[in-house]
Amino acid sequence: MIESLARHPRTVVLVLLAVTLVPAWAWIILMARDMYGSMQGPSAWMMSLTWDWPRVVLLWAMWAVMMAAMMLPAAAPVLLLFAGSVRNREPEAAALKTWLLAAGYVLVWAVFSVAATALQRLLARLFVLTPMMEPATPVLGAILLALAGLYQLTPLKRVCLRTCRSPLSFLTQHWRPGRAGALRMGIDHGIHCLGCCWALMLLLFAGGVMNLTVILALTVWVLVEKLAPFGEAGARLAGVGLLAAAAWMVM
To answer: Which pLDDT tens digit goes with each residue over 42-78?
Structure first.
C-alpha cells in the first residue's frame, strides 16, 4: 500500500486531504446545523455555562478541527510539490514525509486554536459574546472587522501572503532533510500561513463562530488569496472593504 502510494504523489495528497477534510467538514456541518437547530445533538455541550476542563478541551477541539478544515486545502500546492520532489529523491518515504509536512502545518493551527479558545473565554466573560458564539454588540463586530481590515494592508500580511503564494520558492528556501525536516517544513509553512490569515480567522467571532456561511466564505477567500492570480490585490481590496464594513456597523 505504502509503496503504491509512493509511486503516485498526487494520490498521497488526495488521500491525505480526504481522510482529514471529509470527517472535519462533516463534524463542522453537523455542529453548525445543530447549533441553529435543536441544540440537542453534537453542539449541545456548547450551551453549558460552566467553563470546566471538558468544555474547554471540546472547544479547543472544535477550533482545531475547524482550522484544519478551513486551512489545509490552501496548503495543497505545497503538499503536491513536496510529494513529487520526495518521490524523486526518496520514493519509499514520499507518503510518510508528506503526511509529516501536513502534520506540522496543522500543528501550527492547533496552537492557534488554543489562543482562539482563550479569546472566546475572555469575550464570553466580558459578556460581548453570546452563548450562540455571536457578537452581543455591533461594537465587537466592528472592532474585529477593523482589525482584520487593517492587517490586510500591512507589510507583514503582504510578505506572508507572497510566501504562501509561492510554494516552489518556499520549498527551495526552507528544504530540510529527513522526517524531522519534513515536520519542521510543515511548521514553517504553517507559521507563514498563520501570519497571513490569523486576522481573517478572527472574523468568525464577528459573524458567528459556528455560522456555516461565514466558515465557507472565509475558506473560499483564503483559497482566492493564495491561489488566484489577483490574490494579492484582492487581499488589499478586502482590507478596504472590511474597514468600510466596520465603519458602517458603528454609524
So the answer is: 777 777 677 888 889 999 999 999 999 999 999 999 9
d(CA 192, CA 47): 34
Q: Where are the domains of the chain?
A: 2-250
For residue range 132-147, list pLDDT tens digits in order. Answer: 888 999 999 999 999 9
* Angle (nearest 5°) at CA 212 between 207 and 217: 70
pLDDT tens, residue by residue, 170-192: 999 999 988 999 999 999 999 99
Whole-Å CA distances, 114 to 184, 205, 231, 239: 20, 15, 29, 26
Would you mind telling me the total number of residues written for the chain in this entry? 251
Please say whether the beta carbons of 179 and 100 come within 8 A. yes
Cell numbers of 166, please? 509561492
End-to-end CA, the chain: 60
- Cα 87 to Cα 9: distance, rounded to the nearest angstrom: 7
The H or E element containing residue 141 is: helix 138-152
Q: Three cell numbers at 52? A: 470546566
What is the rounded distance in angstroms from the CA atom of residue 104 to the CA atom of residue 206?
28
Is residue 1 over pLDDT 50? no
Amino acid at site 135: P
Cβ(203)–Cβ(119) below 8 Å: no
